[in-house]
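Review form for a predicted model. The reviewer records the input and the model, then writes brief findings.
Reviewer: anonymous (R2)
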Amino acid sequence: MLNDDILDEGIKYNSKKDAESAKEILNLKKQYLKEEKDVRNGKIALWGIVILQFIAALVEHNQFQDTTVNTINAIIIGVIALSAIFAEKNPFLGFVIGFSIFCLFQLIVCIADPMNIIRGIVVKVFIFYYLIVGISSARSFIKTKESLAFYGLNY
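Model under review:
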């Protein structure tokens, strides 16, 4: 029974309503931790795209030394890096922008070279997975954070 028990915030809950609020707070904290992990993985996926794209740009620069290719790579790296930075403030929008640019780039490259679908498939699958999970968790993450703030808990 939760009456007169001290929960993890060091607060005593004496009434049934307080105990129900405490249960809700604990459930929100569990949900927050899971969603925070998913959002963190999405951010890591965005930075992974930036790093892999940068490495690919260096390789292409050494092979072709074409300013057009270098400019396109710089723009893609810049936009995805900005979306990763923006994901710190607004994860949902940052993930959607990064995911959209990544998908568009993959589509364009696959049209130019159909074998690109197979190259790096494992890495692409991981990136797609973590970005999709990040997008789906980002909205509920923000709502959970607001719900915890309603109870006076700022995370």
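Findings: The first helix runs from residue 16 to 64.
Further findings: The CA atoms of residues 45 and 127 lie 6 Å apart.
Recommendation: see findings above.
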